[in-house]
Amino acid sequence: MLKLPLIFDGAYGTFYASLSGRSSALIEQANLNDPDLVTGMHQAYLKAGANALKTNTFGLPQMFTNYQEQAILVNKAVQQARLAYECLDQASQEKLGSKPMVFGDLGPVPAQADPSQIYLPLADLLVEAGVDGILFETLSSIDGIEKTARQIKEKNPDCVVIASIAVGTDGLTKSGLSGRQLLAALDQIPEVDAMGYNCLCGPSHMHRQMQDLPKFSKPLSFMPNAGYPSVSERRTLYDGQPDYFARHLANMVLEGAAIVGGCCGTTPEHIQALTDSLQKVQGSYKAVQAFDPSRNQVQKPNDGLSSIQNPCACPDEHAGPSQPAISRQPDLLDQRRQTGQKAILVELDPPESDHVSGFLEDASHLHSAGADLLTIADNPIGRPRADSSILACKVHRELGMEVLPHMTCRDRNLNAMKALLLGLSMEDVHQVLLVTGDPLPLESRDEVRAVFSFNSRTLASFVRSLGEQGLCRPFHTLGALDVNARNFDVQLRLAKEKEANGIEGFLTQPVFSKRALANLKRARAELSGAIYGGIMPIVSYRNACFLKNEITGMDIPDDLAQSFQNKDRAECEAISKAFCYEKMDQMKEMVDGFYLMTPFRRVSLICDLIAYAKTL
Fold this sequence. Notes:
The chain is of the alpha/beta class.
């Protein structure tokens, strides 16, 4: 039976660094090299009043990278569980009134790893070592948690499983996912007993995050950092005061938090201040006093303390987001699809300088010719050009034209992406094309680094979360679909994942070949979102050869490329228009519109394609 509120210990890495003068990165190695120091840290937290200890194994998932290390990891896991249990002496049990619990602690897995392949064996080791529970913490996603939790319960139904998400002050993880959504998903996993937040936030901001949560059926856990770090002589220091930390955590318990503790920078002094604060308000807890993990049920206390059935539920006055979510309003693309009209999207590359008059002139001609929406690439081919979002705002403001800026994951981190999206919303631009982005040119890589905080799927989820939190009007999010891919099964799988994350439609790569048409037909049958078929006029034999050999995602048949050889400009344009008309005829039943790509400012050529598209 799990007694609540459960008070966890604090940080081990920063505490170890302060005691030993060594890097916190060596903390797990100390289980083998300096067990007395690790035992002393456990004892310090127990003396401070913690009734739940974490094993000193947070970093094992990051270290679990090759078979050579596995024997070492086994020793570390088993040794750490033994060290933690050695601390549970009679004196500490008498002080706490019950036997403290030991939780096997597992931090996040490396970004490119399969979480299940890492969590499953490590959880097995810790369960076999006899821990009372497993704490998955500092998660930026919940991949692998359900499968691992199920295995844990199969081995020991009484083993308590807690999953804790790391969110920033905006309620988002480092992957751009909504903490609220991840908690809602965890709430539906029967094998997860409790869930919550830890790390990234200080106590005040985490308190606010708690107050913004809706009600859930499971107990909630909150373990903030001591504050926010500063760096001195290459050491990361946290200056958050124990009394301040304790005041917020005690209030969170009064408001219904069932499990509390500390993350980075928290020391035994912080936990001592917390337990002292809780003793002063004992009897006022809204949290119930017991939880049965084998039945996943809250038990009412029999000691006269006030309680509620759900220990993690925040008061009604705090439920819901700080701003109400707004439904996405239908836009021009929606209207075209609802009426069965083919939408016409035209792409213009942004200028390489601040000379924007020619770009605006071209956009105006396309608008007058009947283009429904102007799409603007984000540094195409990885080379810097005018910012697509700022340019889109200018076009929308000055020409009154609907715009679709492309947004890549390549050049911006989470903060920059959020700032840009909020700016677009302020400018009343609410359509974006989300793509991973072309790789940087080889010659630029010594001086420029790609960011890639997201992929296009997680970026879509991030954009959706902004609207759900009421931070901006929801965006109409579109994605890219490579119909030229030789393994189109992979592309369809990714497209379905994009749809699951909020993508509402797709702009395809240019369709030149029979294979691309066949793949487009499959996409129409298997995807639920809108599809806009890609059309790119070829303007010369040289252009055909360049596209065929140097641009990824192009599938230009040899006979098509050869048809442009030794032809003048007028002849090339005639061949190109005839070919594009043919492809539009062939794909018209498979698409909701056409995505026309303007080559070398050949606006008159695109205007002829627009005119033809309007007849279909």
